[in-house]
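Inverse folding, one chain.
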């Protein structure tokens, strides 16, 4: 029996992440963040202090992003966490409700169950900062344009972290594997497939291809056109296989790269499997290092051009 068709408003499988994966990547995310951008956000919000600050986190997942940011930012803070997964939203609300701002005051938290393509243009009205982590590489050009327009209309700052930049390197102390580039190219192409996380028609249909590694630079361009002052910074994962947690994350990455590359290039399945087997051996060495490139982006309103 074939699987039932996916509802038009259901999230695309490539935009659904379980709590186990989010927990596995969390230490690497925390270590990778570009701290100077947090300070810029802090200064922007400090100038608006004296009233409760409204902060919105898109694609909150288990709440790692606001959990990290809240203690580094002034308050009082009220967060709205937005995600399409009710179980993750409940987890995020419980986690973030126990967090305090920089001055030790508990933050306010509410949640909103919503898909990315269900966001309305006035959803950011009255907000001081809109944030997201590991999200915008999943969306299409139309969604990103709408997002930039909505942020500009609201006059809010923007902090988007850990968007993939399309580069990764496996260094096992020996010569580079000749198929690293092939798998990386196939994976990056897979990242730019249609994922249903775009502007669409209001029901998730007819969205364009995901931007993948092009997302953060493209958002920088769109926000600059709205008069924003934009800072783009590198925020790579740096994984070392002598650490058990980082080795586990590296193994999950290898599996994900293999699966995506094989789906993108089914004619090369044997080649990709052979590459995966060789790279698994590299992970068995304590001296192997993996770098996975990401961008962090901070933007605050300036004078519109």
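Residues assigned per position:
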């Amino acid at each position: 029996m074939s699987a039932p068709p996916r509802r038009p408003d259901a999230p695309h499988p490539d935009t659904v992440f379980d709590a186990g994966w989010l927990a596995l990547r969390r230490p690497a995310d925390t270590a990778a963040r570009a701290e100077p951008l947090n300070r810029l956000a802090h200064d922007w919000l400090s100038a608006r202090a004296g009233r409760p600050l409204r902060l919105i986190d898109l694609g909150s997942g288990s709440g790692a992003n606001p959990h990290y940011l809240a203690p580094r930012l002034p308050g009082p803070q009220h967060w709205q966490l937005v995600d399409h997964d009710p179980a993750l939203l409940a987890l995020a609300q419980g986690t973030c409700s126990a967090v305090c701002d920089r001055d030790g005051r508990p933050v306010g938290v509410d949640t909103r169950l919503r898909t990315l393509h269900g966001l309305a243009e006035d959803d950011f009205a009255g907000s001081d900062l809109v944030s997201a982590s590991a999200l915008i590489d999943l969306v299409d050009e139309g969604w990103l344009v709408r997002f930039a327009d909505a942020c500009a209309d609201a006059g809010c700052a923007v902090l988007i972290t850990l968007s993939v930049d399309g580069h990764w390197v496996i260094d096992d102390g020996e010569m580079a594997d000749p198929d690293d580039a092939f798998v990386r190219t196939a994976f990056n192409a897979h990242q730019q497939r249609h994922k249903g996380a775009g502007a669409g028609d209001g029901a998730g249909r007819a969205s364009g291809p995901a931007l993948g590694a092009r997302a953060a630079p493209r958002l920088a361009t769109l926000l600059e056109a709205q008069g924003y002052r934009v800072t783009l910074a590198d925020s790579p994962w740096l994984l070392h296989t002598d650490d058990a947690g980082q080795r586990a994350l590296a193994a999950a990455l290898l599996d994900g790269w293999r699966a995506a590359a094989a789906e993108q290039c089914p004619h090369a399945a044997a080649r990709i499997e052979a590459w995966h087997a060789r790279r698994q051996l590299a992970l068995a060495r304590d001296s192997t290092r993996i770098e996975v490139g990401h961008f962090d982006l901070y933007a605050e309103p300036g004078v519109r051009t």
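The mean pLDDT is 88. The chain has nine helices and eight strands.
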